[in-house]
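Notes from the 1:1 (GR / supervisor)

We went over the backlog. Supervisor wanted to see one worked example end to end before approving the batch request, so GR pasted a single chain during the call. The sequence is below; no edits were made to it. Supervisor asked that the structure be written out right there so they could see what the output format looks like.
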Amino acid sequence: MLGGVLRGLRGNHNLNRPQAAEKKRAGAGVYNFRAFHVMGDTMSDLLKRSALAYKELMSYRYHFTLGRKGQLRHLSIHFPEVAYHHLAGFHRAGIAALLNKKKSLETVLTGAVTHEHFKRAGAVLEDRWTGICRLKEIIEYNRVVFYYRGHEQPGSMLEGDYLIVHDGVVFFIAGGVPESIFEQKSRRYEQGCPRFVTLQISREEMATGEVTCLFRSATFIEIPTR
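Structure output shown during the call:
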């Protein structure tokens, strides 16, 4: 847990001023999914890189402080191993070797399942794997979080409490756990959702409890407990 009580906004300043420099570092503009795919030797490389990227995130818990109309809200995101199965879209593939959700991450890392298995199953999930490869960047450089209630998108089966849209990627969080990630196309999932500005992002090392502040808005005040 983060120490202190996090409170308040000071003035009516632009909270997104640091974003320009950070987007330059992270890669500004709409992300080119096609270009990302061809960076690796094969689609199996992309699949394995997504598993490696998720395994790295399993070491962290992220703490967000969000602001909207003078009110604060706190959001924590952690990465249980079992959540990789749904995030990577394996529930859509019906591949026998991936039916065990708890072991699907290691199954990919050992190479027991490759892109060829998904090709034979007719499952096109590359945009999800690409998003997972970029998920650390999406979380650490994002400055807006949407509160997702579900009724904004009639007919959608997607579940989630919060929604992040970042450089062409849509990322859903449910109960503090990653729920879904994919390339944004014509549907704007954030439309009609309450918009929260990111005031602070901290990354906690799960093994040690050490917390690093990654971002704090210049307009945000932290008031420690007495």
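Supervisor's comment: The chain has a mean pLDDT of 83.
Batch request approved.
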